[in-house]
Amino acid sequence: MAAADLASIAAYWDESADAFDDEADHGLRDPGVRAAWAHRLAGWLPDTPSEVLDLGCGTGSLSLLMAEQGHRPTGVDLSPRMVEAASRKLSGFRVPVVVGDAGDPPVAGPFDVVLVRHLVWTLPAPEEALARWLGLLRPNGRLVLVEGRWQTSGGGTYTPGSPHLPWLGGVTAARLVDALEHMADVIHSERLTDPTLWGRPIQDERYVVIACPR
Question: Which residues contact 38 (CB under 8 A, 6 or more apart)?
Fold first, then answer.
């Protein structure tokens, strides 16, 4: 993504950083919500301690859960203020958190897992990003995508100066699986309808898709 585009998007998320954890599934402040995400992560990630790349890590809530479970996460987020918040949250662990474009991560890999939550809608070329993420995995690694479809806007932008986003408002599981099947083996897809995960009942489509590189 062009530097000017990245700057406008980083500024947008910088402005959101202070209130970001107020959302139940962002801050995981409620013990029930936190436990629900910890349980899900334990099922999606390997049983043994693993190298995990947390893309669009925000304030680091999922990275913290993974570190507590014995994994070795690395966080990447475009917003310097989000990275600062994540670094504070993860201060009890040796977890690197770096500022960078999650669609084209400034990391070398390889990783056992690339974890992405609610990020693909922010990308101007999401299918190119999927291919890059798969390329960061070890041969038996897995790409874990926690995504959803919240609006039916049909593309556009969410902040002035940013590029057109084909998946603005989210992407359906069927569309995401279709994109992945051209480049990876999809091994699991599941709707995430449990209101405990979100701190409230939901009416939109939320799900996880897990894929492995070919």
Answer: 65, 68, 69
In whole angstroms, give the CA distance from residue 93 to residue 96. 9
Nearest C-alpha neighbor of 180 from the set 122, 139, 120, 138: 120
Q: Which helix (H) or strand (E) holds 32?
A: helix 31-44
Of 206, 142, 211, nearest to 182 (Cα)? 211
Residue showing tokens 């994994």: 71
E strand or H helix that includes residue 119: none
**Distance (Å, whole) CA 90 – CA 59:** 9
Output b/e per residue, 39-51; b: 16+ Cβ within 10 A: ebbeebbeeeebb
Bigger pLDDT: 59 vs 2: 59
Tell me the three state secondary structure of residue 36: helix
Residue 147 CB contacts under 8 Å (≥ 6 apart), including other chains: 116, 117, 118, 119, 120, 121, 170, 171, 173, 176, 206, 207, 208, 209
Residue-wise pLDDT for 14-70, tens only, equals: 999 999 999 999 999 999 999 999 999 999 999 999 999 999 999 999 999 999 999
Which amino acid, residue 80?
P
- Residues of the chain above pLDDT 70, percent: 96
